[in-house]
Amino acid sequence: MTAEATRDAPSQKRLRADAQRNRDRLVEVAAQMFASDGVDASLEEIAKRAGVGIGTLYRHFPTREHLVEVVYRREVEGLCHAAEDLAREHPADVALELWMQRFVDYIATKRGLATSLRLLLTTNSTLFSDTSGRVSGAMRSLVQAAAAAGKIRADVDSSDVMHALGGIYSAPNTPDWRERSGRLVKLLMDGLRFGARG
């Protein structure tokens, strides 16, 4: 045990909880800022908005790439959990549409992380192997459920829907990008519902 760990031992449980809250808040704020400002968002500003000092940020995330990786994993996890939650709480077609709107937020963050994600792709083989297929799997389960319920066309292939949503990623990053992306999701859902038996 280090001298620092020994010093903190009497209140270790409380400090651990505080540290986890700080870390969670840093990741939440970083995701928001990467989505709005890109991967070059100021780490000092992230720490400030999270209500902690820059030293706390660096204790949790020694490099910008480490923070980017954690934010990316968080976004993937959130998107996959959202699919499960929405499927339980809404009719199948509504769950699919709400999830696709949530996917737009995921894309916004991913666009902000693009430069660092390309770097991580060459240096961290586990990041993409761990997350590969999880998002498309979540999409597939929602599409299949909506088709089985007769809420969307029975001939819909989830990979086609994913390709259509992927087009949002490459759209110009204009001030109204999110609004336009939301409209595109609605148009896509109209097409999926057309001809459904339900």
TrEMBL record:
Biological source species: Mesorhizobium atlanticum
DNA-binding region: 42-61
Swiss-Prot/TrEMBL keywords: DNA-binding, Transcription, Transcription regulation
Molecular function terms, GO-annotated: DNA-binding transcription factor activity; transcription cis-regulatory region binding
Keyword Chaperone: no
Annotated ranges, domain HTH tetR-type: 20-79
Name listed for the protein in its UniProt record: TetR family transcriptional regulator
Domain of life where this protein originates: Bacteria
InterPro entries with a match to the protein in the record: Homeodomain-like_sf (IPR009057), HTH-type_TetR-like_transc_reg (IPR050109), HTH_TetR (IPR001647), Tet_transcr_reg_TetR-rel_C_sf (IPR036271), TetR_SbtR-like_C (IPR049445)
Record-linked Pfam families: TetR_C_43, TetR_N
Region (Disordered): 1-20
